[in-house]
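Data availability excerpt. The first of two example chains:
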Amino acid sequence: MAKLAIITGATSGIGKATAEAFAKAGINLILCGRRAERLAALQASLSTQVQVHTLTFDVRDQAAVSAALNSLPEALKQIDILVNNAGNAHGMGPIQSGDVADWDAMIDGNIKGLLYVSQVVIPWMIARQQGHIVNLSSIAGKQTYPNGNVYCASKAAVEALSEGMRLDLNPHNIKVTNIAPGAVETEFSLVRFKGDAQKSDAVYQGYQPLVAEDIADIIAFTVTRPAHVVLADILILPTAQASPAVVKRQQ
């Protein structure tokens, strides 16, 4: 019987690539995001391979999260895999000149959004005494870098939540995997720099960064391991990167 996965932030980047990788693996999908037109296009693309259902909501809105997920028919609440991918970086600067709106966006999306979705889905997994939760952290959750402050803190929280989930859900046979990518060329930096393409492009110049498909491939591998195997915590870097701030760039 085919597994069923729910992916947040599925309209672009790692979320979209993970949906495509899961479809290739024959995993049915519930795709979540804020942009309905992108969800519809992805559904049309992948529904030739697997069953695809979409939900449009912002993970930062707890009422919207609850209403959308609880609207699922019972058959679609039999979720095997939850990928908490939604989240972003907003702004980059020293703590003393930080933008409160940016702080709120990162805390609400990266931490609270993950919690809001998990709070609804986890009881369904507990009822079945099985499931696999994949949380998208970052190298920034393991090592803080200058001007990263609140973003790094939000991803450090994801690391702690992954460990806490693993402890609390161990009696219920639920796997938890923490995925921590390094530099991945997606819309990430474009969002962080408020649409400034020049600043965004500079992040990835002079070396070969990861791409979304690299991370999706590892997520797909992780969720298709035997029942007794958990890949608990995975740090993924491009060859050129040794830490958040140490990257070998070509001159």
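And the second chain:
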Amino acid sequence: MPKPTDIRIAATTIATQQLDFRTPIKFGGQVVRSAVIVDVEVRVETADGRVATGNGSMPMGNIWAWPRATDPTLALEAMIRLATQLVHDAPSLGVSGHPLDLSQEIDRRRTETAAASCQAVGLQEPMPELAQLVAASPLDAAIHDAYGKALEANAFCVLGPSYMTHDLGHYLDEEFQGEYLDRYTLPKAKPSMPLYHLVGALDPLTDADVEEPVGDGLPETLAEWIAADGLTHLKIKLNGDDLAWDVERLVAVERVAAEVQARRGVEVWHYSLDFNERCENVDYVLAFLAGVAERSKSALQRVQYIEQPTQRNLTDRPEYRMHAAAKIKPVVIDESLTDLASLRLARRLGYSGVALKACKGQSESLLMAAAAQKYGMFLCVQDLTCPGASFLHSASLAAHIPGVAAIEGNGRQYCPSGNRGWSDRFPTMFQIHDGTVGTAVLDGPGLGF
């Protein structure tokens, strides 16, 4: 039966902005120097006459979402076209309901619209599912934000049977029948969370590594970042095809971190490892872990988890089995995770954890968080160099999902200009002093901020 809280989309707007990075960042062998942010506004009306406006924001991140595009510039243009068309078409969906229902209807149209977007820019190749999710994510976020604001409630407090027409069996499958998202989410945000700081492959560790100072007053080296922000969690980018370099990089990070943390009197800190899908197989990961253990047992002990080491296409690739590595450290699925089927495939291949990302959509992230918890998997939340509102969205997701270990947030490193204004409004989220972000502020209406 329809509910008085069901919404329909009445109006939408979309805008884009380009932000240059403070320093370049390397994704899977490609250097990125800027980001295009898509900002969406959605006005909704409930069945009982309430009206509210919500917002969503997300970098398009085509180099991450569509790394093998024949023309990255055209790929980015196609993703922006898809985002624009989905936003334009949203008021004519012809459905009303919970945000997950609207998201489901948008998903039904997404692939066809993506094909038209590629054709319009002259791309012959299809847009990958991951790129489609990223393009649709600001619209999905805005719908959830507007829904919560219409009900004067946090979006994570309206996920039970009082608000949702369907249970999770409808959105996932019969294994989840009778369950709702409120079983897998927290109505109140965690008060604070550790922040994962990115150590990019191009980033200097010490003064000796600085070739040309940025000179903008922010830290220039890893040593300076640790001291300035009180960091205790470091995400380390590795090559995945140069074993000696990768081992030495982690050992070097450990050497720098140990020196700074000793001065601070800190004994416990953590690493996550990101090979950007460039490992040929699990043997590379095992050789890496063995090499690190030989050089620095303390460095290995600090590793909290490993991000997806091999290429994202896991179908029919038995050499990508991660069982042996997952016995040593949690191995989380990231780029391959686009739906329940991909999650189950990853589990069969030995993956023991899940990386959630707001850039895949609020709806999709909630569903995958529920499935991962049901299966007892390790959970983390990462971003896509998200500045401003997109980082707050990512952090709100992390703060409302049980078991999430920490949150990644590297916009302050690479894209601080995108945090202007937001930092003044939410200082605990952007002005880091003890290595944590103060997520208690993310309990407002809508997405929380």
